[in-house]
Design a protein that fits this description.
Blueprint (H helix, E strand, L loop, with lengths): L1 H13 L3 E6 L7 H16 L3 E6 L2 H10 L6 E2 L2 E2 L3 H25 L4 E5 L6 E5 L3 E3 L2 E3 L5 E6 L2 H8 L3 E5 L2 E2 L5 E2 L3 H12 L3 E6 L17 E3 H9 L6 H14 L4 E6 L5 H7 L6 E4 L33
Parallel strand pairs: 1-2, 1-13, 2-10, 5-10, 13-15, 14-16
Antiparallel strand pairs: 3-4, 6-9, 7-8, 11-12, 15-16
Helix pairs in contact: 2-4, 3-4, 6-8
Length: about 325
């Protein structure tokens, strides 16, 4: 009961606000992890937040691509998407994983509807030109960068009490499909919806100052501090793409971005409804320390510090 009293200020603050919650394919790779994700999201929804879920499907796409006879290739955390990889992506995300997430949410009492990025013109992307990467100039194939987001289909669902569950691919505006990164997609949707928060569930407990040391979890960062981490080489692989999504969201008007563990069955709720939090809060500018709760990582009362957190969240 005491926990409910402590959560009440956060519940009041979040009620009626729009949250975009992004889950990577690795964090919802098994029925058990899908269930624990759905259980937490259903609670957030029941407590009055307007929720949109965006998910990827990297491991699932890898497995299907191999079944189709092709080895996946990743460059700087992004998939080189051949026609075979695109087929695998569509089968893994819109064809399978989306339905599993929706079914799990419904089982937890939350009405949910699966939506492909290509549905109703929600996401329109433009094919990416060959791009300079750490491996030189790479043609990513059927990969696109989002050009426009029409949030009206999502708003229509949200206003009727549904949780939209959005997955790639996006449409190309001409009847075709393009692979779009789920982190960047979530950021673009959050901006289009004017979301209060973007929450990103990942395999790590949050953003680490040392990628190989889970105890180096950072409680809170400003964008300038995030930039310093990237310049120091602390953000690698998929976390570099997440940092780009964080910047896009915050510069686009989203108030706060949270990066939390997708393996911990309570991390999402701890981050949103406790002062201490469970992951990393990123804001555009450093926030002033509160007068009454010096270790807060909550919403009403927050302190930004570049010290390792001591939240006891383990790396999966």
């Amino acid at each position: 009961m005491t926990d409910l009293f402590r959560a009440a200020p956060h519940v009041r603050l979040h009620c009626g606000k729009t949250f975009v919650i992004k889950a990577g394919g690795g964090t919802i790779a098994k029925p058990s992890t899908i269930r624990q994700f759905a259980r937490q999201v259903a609670v957030v929804h029941a407590l009055g937040a307007r929720v949109v879920v965006v998910h990827g499907g990297g491991p699932q796409t890898d497995a299907l691509q191999r079944m189709l006879g092709e080895e996946p290739r990743m460059v700087d955390g992004r998939r080189v998407t051949s026609p075979t990889a695109m087929r695998a992506l569509r089968m893994a995300t819109a064809g399978e994983l989306s339905g599993e997430v929706v079914a799990a949410l419904v089982a937890e009492g939350a009405a949910a509807v699966g939506v492909s990025g290509a549905s109703a013109g929600l996401l329109v992307a433009k094919r990416r030109a060959p791009t300079r990467t750490s491996e030189g100039v790479v043609d990513f194939g059927e990969v696109g960068d989002i050009q426009s987001v029409d949030p009206s289909p999502l708003v229509a669902l949200i206003e009727r009490g549904y949780i939209p569950v959005v997955c790639p691919p996006a449409g190309d505006g001409a009847g075709g499909f393009l692979n779009v990164n789920a982190d960047l997609t979530a950021a673009a949707i959050a901006v289009a919806l004017g979301a209060a928060k973007l929450v990103m569930l990942t395999g790590a407990p949050g953003i680490l100052s040392n990628p190989s040391d889970p105890s180096s979890l950072l409680s809170a960062l400003s964008l300038a501090e995030l930039d310093s981490l990237e310049e120091a080489g602390a953000l690698k692989g998929g976390m570099r793409v997440k940092s780009a999504a964080i910047r896009a969201a915050l510069y686009g008007g989203v108030g706060r971005v949270h990066v939390v563990s997708g393996a911990d069955e309570q991390a999402l709720l701890q981050e949103l409804y406790t002062n201490k939090g469970a992951g990393t809060l990123v804001t555009r500018e450093p926030e002033k320390a509160p007068l009454s709760t010096p270790e807060s990582n909550g919403d009403a009362l927050e302190q930004v510090t570049l010290q390792p957190a001591t939240k006891g969240v383990a790396v999966p």
